[in-house]
Design a protein that fits this description.
The structure holds two protein chains of two kinds. Chain A has two domains: 2-212 and 272-609 and 644-752, Maltoporin, Chain A; 768-816, no CATH class. Chain A is 12% helix and 43% strand. Chain A contains 16 helices and 44 strands. Chain B has helices at residues 2-15, 19-23, 40-59, 63-70, 86-92, 101-107, 110-132, 138-163, 185-199, 231-245, 248-260, 281-289, 318-322, 340-346, 418-432, 435-448, 461-472, 479-490, 494-502, 511-516, 524-527, and strands spanning 31-32, 81-82, 301-303, 336-337, 370-371, 379-380, 413-416. The chains are: A mainly beta, B mainly alpha.
């Protein structure tokens, strides 16, 4: 594919070279730069976001805040999410340090309670690349055939790690409702706007390269002896004679070197991960046609389990101005992500869809562990994603009239080919192949008209229309028990002519047809939008914008296909109005906006209303659709009832703020307040059991997010000072509240969560632990029945936890559980300091979360070892990291682990911990060599060094409190985010 | 061409003409209401869906066997025990209010109601196809409606014997799903009887390619390796329904009809030979196979898990719970097993082809029922269908392909077979006082397993019949219901009679279900929990 793109670029270059000779004027208003105010290759290491914001505001009446890629001249984070960590209004979740894995973002909080990976996708903000709304994640419909949603089938890579930060000029978190609404209904969860660097007539070659090392963490390992010592306390205190005999096999014999030998698996599991990055950019052209082309590659190795990500990028942008009134912009960004995945047992079992015997864990000794790893030499697990974004924009300008037409395509595909040899899987080998794509075609036309009157009144009118055609598809197949570990055939190949006989496999090559499962799914949806917008500005004092839009979605029901929504925003320049003479104030501005945006549905099943699907699945068989070899059709009993009358869900947001610049903008401050209500949202609730349904999708949920965003920046020392010091603080406060549930319900239990109107949607629902009953005599007795306190239907006994009987009925049950803690931070943000002295600069970035809790599931499982060894389910899988000492064992009382009440159940506040943290995210030092190399023709020459993830301060007793997914449960699966040392150089020729 | 299309779209979207067309995207993943019930194919897909849902209702979380084989009367009387899993242990101790996710799922009846709803939807909508598709004849509808009504009755029979009083819902109520209270089990059982009786004339005694009975439909969906409902299956389930109510005279009539018509001439002429034979001890295992040979035709009614159609599965079969090493490689211990002392106390008679310990060698006679008897935890191998060669003589470790690496199980769910009718008839005759006939039937059954005629010196006739049932149907989901019927016949256990009174012989209703439908009231036996 790369070759095609490159030849495409080549053609373009040739075409425009010849083209340019006939025209002779300069392109100075390339629309790519229409609003580009910030260039990340400006010389200071970190232009403050606030400075940018204020600069933006003074230049434009609109009220926007910018976030810039951190340290344009030094390290660039791999993914967009990492780049945005700490940005105003954005909460980023990075649940694993494994390179290339899915990360997620919430702009101004979560719009719905998140129960699954699928729900999480519905909360993600829209990413807009040069005006084109991107498909930034794989479509969640593949989860329909999965029993577990740890990973989506396919490469499951973070597509937002596919954008090369070297190509990015600016990233903006859009906060103004009119501007957000301008990007359409997909913007309801917020908009992240990315502008790439523009073509330039300056002939320039820029090269940026770095190399670094992610260092493996120091961990304490355990073996059978330490595990046995841990368990001995429980056995000594509580075990019956029978239970003493029932010690699991692997701990039974202390001479058993597999488990009792040295625990040195870490030598093979944790490794230092080298990293490398290179980007070369070329700009140039002719006055009427100029371009920017860049290629880049990044290799990022994880520190654990041989994981890593390689990225290859190529981008090309060209602006031409064939006539006075026409500008044509073309841009193509292509990238490929190749990911080495972890070798977790859990993920493999989820992929192969069955569980082996989980009684014995893998050996902590590297002699045995290496035998296991050697089996992977016979396997493969290839994960590749290709991403291609292309756009052609044509802008016409006739005096006051302007016209823009745009054709854009956004395509990404993913491949995953897996082979596990029989030696990994009870002699039964496994192959699976996945191919899937996401595709969006955008066609947009916008006409505008500008009017200026007496240099006081400025009016701009705009009307536009757009069509988005989305298409998603995957082909997936898997097969078991091939004839040999040397035949790793692609199960996707030639499904119509399998070379196998159906039963015996004696004479078969490859996989039996009866043991191959092939799955295909496809969904399409279209979005049609019209909008009109008016901007009015008076004397740089007041400005107001009004936008009206109508959106029709093919995923909405016919009776509610269109949503009409307005947005309005205004800005008042207080400096101009009142403080023209006040020198202290260089800026003072008040902004407000309000508006409505529809939440477009992702799934085409809602458009149909009552429907028939192919689904005769049962637990453990989530893909079954046939009976006796023929396809079936039935109501969606397992997937949930969908009725008629589903309205558009929508978001109403009102937001306002004040920004100020003092003392010649040496002190900059901005504060924003917002309140966002998501209404009419659909919730999948347990319903209609007597009609066969597991759940029903019901509209009517309402969630409010409100919060404050504060940004401060100061140039502490005078401009004349040689030493420069600019601290910047970024503080976000967000609270969410459930305002209504479907059917007017007050509360609803879904899984292990309780949703209650008036409470937050990210709370844990837990029993309150108040210690231990050391003796039976301590257990309260119900005076009316003379029965002791019970947990559900089990009488409590000595050695059981003292759970609070909140309602005093002497039965501990759901009614005694309380909503407590937040899995998402209440306060979060960043604090950075930039120091400059002569040619040296030093940047220190800190990142923090406060008011957030983690439920330490990993510790609960560790203590619940009795239940864990008897439960053969996916949550009882013991990874190699089972032999890593984590957490603080002393926090927990010694309960009777054999008790039928499961004393170490995870749903109690015993395992809930404060997970607030402060992280030193990066320290970067750079030196400008340009002046030292005056004879060489460098425009720029900077060398830099950085350390990332320097340290974390937290009270959390587990590992890094960031390594937790959307549930707030620390399962222990996240790989550590490593401390990384990097050296780099950046030069412009 | 593509470019041209795009240009067209640009043009039309500019003019706004194609709005409606753009927003009208045909879903590829489902059928809307208006796209369904138009052709014969729709009826077939819905019919198969109904069968698939019925199968799912039985095999979800292996519930058919957990309800039938694992449950005990407070820890006594069942055959199976859990090795390690605490949720299964709770079921085998009759602690049905325990808070394990599995048990919560088993308390939830919605999968049986999915069958009821699908049947109601079918019965309301399929007649429309007769008008819309000339290929769909009234006779097609007649037999498919009979299936729908039968499967609905079967679902209600399971609802009523598992939960007692349950809501009786006979319309789809699409979109207006009202809550209904529990109806008395007598009313529901009466409904089940009427329904099955009503459909018996509509189903044939045999399905053939060259139809012998004129009413037999031409659609081929039932012509696979697996057969659809015949009169025999309907009578067999009806016999079970009568026996459950203690209406033994009616039960006897139905069971006798099945036994008398097992080998009708129509079943053997033309096409594959399909008589419903009594099976030898070896044929029993082949019967579960469901795909090859002719032993599966002996199943009076059940549901298959066919390899050939990709419907074999890691879960949803008895083997999921019972098989372990050395028969399959991925599990060292089964989830449930029959303890040795239970085996020895049940299979006491020397010469029982199913299982006995040879007094000379002190070794078992084979692994027809139990394997690796030398281990502390034997493996229940009676139902043991994993990927293997065609046709299998018997699954064994040495059989081609069945090395135990693949754990896709293919055993059928067998709701009734001729042996069930024979012993049910013996039970009925005993209760009705015709002990001679009962003796004959019991001795036939015993002879088929290599046992001598029963001697009253060894206990009462009814005890002997139930012991024979216990041995013959071990692992076939009958045990709990047999125990209930036995206790009712004996009527000598006040504690058990109290359980009948307060709903203790039923399952509690899931909290999740009660919270959706406040009209439901838990039985007193379970309401304290």
């Amino acid at each position: 594919m790369m070759r095609i793109i490159l030849s495409f670029l080549w053609l373009y270059l040739i075409a425009f070279q010849s083209f340019s000779k006939s025209y002779g004027y300069a392109v100075n208003d390339s629309f790519f730069s229409a609003k580009g105010l910030i260039h990340s290759d400006s010389t200071s290491t970190r232009d403050s976001l606030i400075a940018a914001a204020v600069a933006k505001r003074s230049a434009d009446y609109k009220w926007n805040l910018y976030v810039k890629p951190a340290q344009g001249n030094s390290f660039q984070w791999i993914s967009l999410q990492q780049t945005l960590k700490g940005a105003s209004g954005v909460h980023v979740m990075e649940p694993s340090g494994e390179p290339g894995t899915i990360q997620s973002m919430l702009v101004r909080g979560a719009s719905i309670p998140v129960f699954s990976a699928k729900d999480l996708l519905l909360t993600q903000p829209l990413i807009v690349l040069n005006g084109v709304p991107l498909i930034s994640q794989d479509h969640p419909f593949a989860y329909d055939i999965q029993q577990y949603d740890f990973n989506r089938i396919g490469p499951s890579s973070n597509l937002l790690a596919g954008i090369d930060p070297e190509d990015i000029a600016s990233i903006e978190v859009v906060k103004d409702m009119v501007e957000a609404a301008r990007y359409g209904v997909r913007a309801a969860n917020g908009v992240i706007k990315i502008t790439t660097k523009e073509p330039s007539i300056n002939k320039r070659i820029s090269v940026s390269t770095y190399t670094g090392l992610a260092t493996s963490p120091g961990v304490t390992t355990m073996n059978g002896a330490s595990e046995n010592a841990f368990r001995k306390v429980f056995y000594d205190r509580y075990a019956t004679a029978q239970q003493r005999l029932n010690i699991p096999g692997y701990l039974r014999d202390s001479l058993y070197s597999i488990y009792y030998g040295p625990s040195n698996w870490t030598d093979l599991y944790y490794k230092n991960g080298p990293e490398f990055g290179l980007n070369a950019t070329l700009t140039g052209g002719f006055p009427n046609a100029n371009f920017r082309a860049s290629v880049g590659t990044v290799r990022n190795n994880g520190i654990a389990d041989n994981t890593g990500l390689s990225r290859y990028n190529a981008s090309f942008a060209l602006v031409t101005k064939p006539t006075k009134w026409m500008t044509i912009g073309t841009s193509i960004n292509a990238s490929q992500l190749v990911r080495n995945r972890n070798r977790n047992f859990r993920d493999r079992y989820a992929e192969v869809r069955y569980l082996p015997d989980l009684t014995n864990p893998i050996s902590p000794n590297k002699d045995y562990y290496s035998n296991f790893l050697d089996q992977y030499d016979k396997s493969f697990d290839k994960n590749k994603s290709n991403i291609l974004n292309g756009a052609v924009d044509m802008r016409l300008a006739f005096g006051k009239f302007g016209f823009l037409t745009r054709l854009a395509a956004n395509y990404s595909d993913g491949y995953r080919d897996v082979f596990y040899p029989g030696t990994l899987m009870e002699t039964n080998n496994y192959v699976s192949n996945y191919f899937g794509f996401n595709q969006r075609i955008l066609i947009e036309n916008v006409a505008d008209y500008k009017l200026d009157w007496k240099d006081k009144h400025h009016l701009k009118l705009e009307a536009g229309q757009s069509v988005q055609l989305d298409s998603y598809r995957y082909n997936y197949s898997y097969a078991y028990d091939g004839s040999s570990d040397f035949i790793k055939v692609n199960a996707l190949n030639d499904p119509l002519n399998p070379s196998v006989n159906i039963f015996g496999n004696a004479n078969t090559v490859g996989f039996l047809n009866t043991l191959i499962v092939r799955l295909i799914d496809q969904t399409k949806n279209n979005l049609l939008s019209y909008h009109t917008k008016a901007d009015y500005q008076y004397k740089k004092k007041y400005s107001v914008s009004l936008l009206l839009r109508a959106d029709g979605s093919s995923n909405a029901q016919v009776t509610n296909q269109w949503l009409f929504a307005p947005a309005i925003s205004g800005s008042w320049n207080l400096k101009e109005e009142f403080l023209k003479e006040a020198e202290a104030f260089s800026e003072l501005r008040l902004n407000a906006s309000a508006g409505r945006l529809g939440n477009v549905l992702q799934d085409d099943r809602f458009a149909a209303g009552p429907q028939y699907v192919v689904d005769v699945t049962y637990t453990g068989e989530p893909r079954l659709g046939n009976y006796n070899g023929a396809a079936t059709l039935e109501r969606p009993y397992s997937r949930g009832w969908v009725g008629y009358g589903i309205p558009w869900a929508y978001t109403d947001q009102i937001t306002g703020g004040l920004s100020a610049g003092l003392f010649n903008n040496r002190l900059l401050a901005a504060v924003d307040l917002y309140s966002r209500i998501n209404k009419n949202q659909m919730l999948e609730v347990p319903a209609y059991a007597e009609y066969g349904y597991a759940t029903a999708f019901k509209p009517g949920m309402e969630v409010q997010n409100s919060g404050v965003e504060l940004q401060l920046r100061a140039d502490v020392l005078a401009k004349t000072s040689r030493l420069k010091w600019s601290p910047a603080l970024n503080l976000n406060y967000n609270r969410n509240k459930l305002k209504a549930l479907p059917d007017g319900l007050d509360k609803i239990i879904i899984g292990n969560r309780l949703l209650k109107v008036g409470e937050s949607i990210d709370q844990f629902w837990l029993y309150e632990n108040e210690g231990i009953f050391n003796a039976n005599s301590e257990i309260p007795v119900n005076p009316s029945t003379n029965e002791p306190l019970r947990f559900q239907n089990e009488a409590l006994q000595a050695g059981d936890p003292r759970w609070r009987d909140a309602n005093g009925d002497y039965i501990i049950d759901d009614n005694d559980k309380v909503l407590t803690g937040h899995s998402m931070p209440v306060v979060f943000g960043s604090f950075s300091n930039n120091l400059g002295y002569k040619k040296w600069t030093l940047a220190v970035d800190m990142y923090y979360n406060m008011g957030r809790k983690i439920l330490n599931q990993e510790m609960a499982s560790r203590f619940d070892f009795i239940n864990m060894q008897s439960a053969n389910n996916i949550n009882a899988v013991k990874e190699i990291t089972y032999w890593e000492k984590r957490g603080d064992y002393n926090r927990y009382p010694i309960y009777n682990p054999w008790s039928p009440v499961s004393p170490y159940r995870a749903d109690q506040d015993l395992f809930l911990e404060d997970a607030s943290f402060l992280k030193m995210r990066s320290i970067t030092i750079s030196y400008d060599l340009k002046s030292s190399l005056k004879k060489a023709k460098f425009n720029k020459m900077i060398i830099w060094g950085s350390v990332r993830n320097v340290f974390t301060i937290s009270q959390y007793s587990g590992r890094d409190p960031e390594l937790v997914d959307y549930t707030g449960f620390d399962t222990g699966y996240g790989q550590a985010i490593p401390r990384t040392y990097t050296l780099g150089i950046k030069m412009d020729l | 061409m593509r470019l041209l299309n795009i240009l067209f779209i640009v043009f039309f979207s500019l003019s706004g003409i194609s709005c409606k067309k753009l927003l009208d995207v045909d879903p590829t993943r489902l059928l809307g209401e208006e796209s369904m019930w138009n052709t014969q194919t729709d009826a077939k897909a819905a019919m198969l869906g109904l069968l698939g849902l019925s199968k799912a209702a039985f095999c979800d979380n292996e519930r058919y066997w957990l309800y039938g084989d694992l449950r005990t009367i407070d820890g006594k009387g069942g055959d199976f025990r859990s090795t390690q899993r605490l949720d299964l242990k709770a079921i085998s101790q009759n602690k049905l209010t325990a808070s394990y996710p599995l048990i919560e799922s088993l308390r939830n009846w919605r999968r049986f109601y999915a069958v009821v709803n699908a049947a109601n939807v079918f019965l309301e909508n399929a007649p429309k196809i007769i008008e819309r598709d000339p290929h769909y004849l009234p006779v097609d509808f007649r037999i498919e409606a009979a299936h729908a009504r039968f499967l609905r009755a079967l679902a209600y029979f399971n609802l009523v014997r598992i939960w007692g009083d349950v809501p009786l819902i006979l319309s789809s109520n699409d979109g207006q799903f009202g809550n209904k209270p529990r109806e008395s089990k007598e009313k529901i059982l009466a409904f089940i009887e009427e329904e099955i009786k009503a459909i018996i004339p509509d189903v044939p005694v045999v399905y053939k390619d060259n139809n012998i009975e004129p009413e037999v439909p031409r659609a081929s969906w039932h012509m696979g390796e697996w057969q659809a409902l015949k009169k025999h299956g309907a009578y067999a389930i009806l016999a079970q329904v009568y026996a459950w109510q203690g209406k033994y005279a009616d039960a006897a009539i139905c069971a006798k009809w099945v036994l008398d018509n097992r080998t009708l001439q129509a079943l053997t002429t033309g096409g594959p030979s399909q008589p419903m034979n009594f099976l030898s001890a070896d044929q029993v295992r082949q019967m579960f196979r469901g795909e090859f040979g002719s032993n599966q035709y002996s199943i009076l009614f059940g549901f298959p898990h066919n390899f050939v159609n990709g419907e074999a599965s890691n879960s949803g079969c008895l083997e999921t719970l019972t098989l372990a090493a050395p028969y399959i490689l991925r599990k060292s211990l089964p989830d449930i097993y029959v303890p040795k002392d239970t085996i020895l106390s049940v299979f006491k008679e020397i010469g029982d082809q199913r299982f006995y310990i040879d007094p000379v060698t002190a070794l078992p006679n084979g692994d027809r029922y139990f394997g690796v008897f030398d281990r502390p935890i034997p493996v229940f191998t009676k139902v043991f269908i994993i990927k293997d060669s065609n046709p299998p003589p018997l699954n064994s470790l040495t059989g081609v392909g069945s090395d135990g690496s693949i754990t896709l199980f293919g055993s059928s769910i067998v709701l009734s077979r001729p042996e069930d009718m024979r012993l049910l008839l013996a039970e009925a005759y005993t209760v009705l006082g015709d002990t001679d006939a009962a003796f004959t039937l019991l001795n036939d059954a015993r002879a088929a397993r290599g046992l001598p005629a029963f001697n009253l010196a060894n206990g009462s006739l009814i005890d002997a019949i139930f012991t024979e049932r216990r041995k013959e149907f071990m692992g076939e989901g009958h045990r709990w219901y047999d125990m209930v019927r036995y206790k009712k016949i004996k009527n000598n256990d006040p504690a058990f009679n109290a359980m009948i009174q307060d709903g203790g012989i039923y399952w509690p209703i899931a909290k999740e279900v009660i919270s959706q439908n406040p009209l439901l009231v838990q039985y007193p036996h379970w309401s304290n929990n």
